[in-house]
Specification:
3-stranded antiparallel sheet, Beta-lactam-related, 12 helices, Beta-lactamase, signal, 348 residues
Length: 348
């Protein structure tokens, strides 16, 4: 797992849903509760095996100033979980015959710099393009405090030389998915947020998901926090316009469960495209998904981290097990708690 940090302080609020009261798994609930009481976890946890929901609870507070508890309808920023939605939109265009995975991106972006001539669509999806990660570049933090348009975002790094030859190795780079967002808009003539809504969220009934913006008044939004000097403080991050197609989506635990059921149930992509998305490549990465194993069982997962928030969505096909962990504390290791829950399920 990438960049998991420890948290230290207790937080006791626990809000079960109606579903959890009907058929929860006490051992898994205990794991989640311990994370809240002993490690300061604040957020929501959802674990489902097939149609059986085993944990569906909120912990801690969505808004600490007002004492509002996290609930199963609380909306969280997802950070890099956004990438699987961007990947799905690209793969839907592949299914439509409008994009070729192995074509150079210059076919779809006529202003692509000469240095990107050998970068393919697949390279962007798989983080094998060599395009440097713009979020680690000098000057990024100050530049990203201002709202940016997609062309500005890509313009921030388009003049940088590649870190390595396209296809030669894996290196995770948020830049890849910003370029994919621009590609989606150029091919379709539509805004990225509208594509998310019309091609994914609305057809699947994911009414609590969307592309965030700095000005959006979003009901049931969790405020984001971080630890500083042993206390939780409000997170003050970059403009949410900057993560965009690499990290700008918000959602709920229930919407993410419905998304996983639709995606892995074959209701989003063709069988060929779903196989491409979930096939392990360099860096144990597929196309918008990390692909690994737990005790010999295939595990498809991704984490997200953005200032004030941490997220995780994982799926084990052998058990039809979906695990969602969303937190409104950016230092909370969502992936660590998720893996403890998977361990707990395996030990039942």
């Amino acid at each position: 797992m990438r960049r998991l940090l420890a948290v230290l302080l207790p937080l006791m609020l626990v809000v079960p849903s109606a579903a959890s009261a009907q058929a929860e798994a006490p051992g898994l609930v205990s794991i989640a509760r311990a994370a809240a009481e002993q490690n300061g976890f604040s957020g929501v946890v959802l674990v489902a095996a097939g149609d059986d929901v085993l944990v569906d609870r909120g912990f801690g507070e969505a808004n600490r100033e007002w004492g509002i508890a996290n609930g199963v309808d609380t909306r969280f920023r997802l950070g890099s979980l956004t990438k699987q939605f961007t990947a799905a939109l690209v793969l839907k265009l592949v299914d439509d015959g409008k994009v070729d995975l192995d074509a150079p991106i210059a076919r779809y972006l006529d202003d692509a710099p000469a240095g990107w001539a050998k970068v393919s669509v697949r390279d962007l999806l798989a983080h094998t393009s060599g395009i440097p990660n713009f979020t680690t570049m000098d000057g990024f933090d100050a530049w990203a405090m201002t709202a940016r348009e997609p062309n500005e975002i890509v313009g921030f790094f388009r003049g940088q030389p590649l870190d390595f030859a396209p296809g030669s190795r894996f290196e995770y780079s948020n830049s890849n998915y910003e370029v994919l967002g621009l590609l989606l808009q150029r091919v379709t003539g539509r805004a990225y947020g509208a594509l998310l809504h019309d091609r994914l969220f609305a057809p699947l009934g994911l009414g609590d998901s969307g592309l965030d913006s700095d000005a959006l008044v979003l009901p049931h939004r969790a405020a984001g926090y971080r630890w500083r000097d042993g206390a939780l403080v409000r997170a003050r991050g970059i403009s949410i316009s900057v993560p965009w197609a690499a990290g700008g989506v918000y959602s709920t635990s229930h919407d993410l469960l419905d998304w996983a059921r639709a995606l892995y149930g074959g209701r989003v992509l063709s069988a060929e495209s779903l196989a491409a998305m979930t096939r392990k490549g360099p860096g144990d990465y597929g196309l918008g998904q990390e692909v690994g194993a737990f005790r010999g069982h295939r595990l498809i997962e991704h984490e997200g981290r953005i200032e004030g928030y941490s997220s995780y969505l994982g799926y084990l096909p052998d058990w039809k097990l979906t695990v969602v962990v969303l937190s409104n504390v950016s230092d909370t290791p969502a992936g660590v708690l998720a893996h403890r829950l998977i361990e707990g399920y395996a030990a039942r």
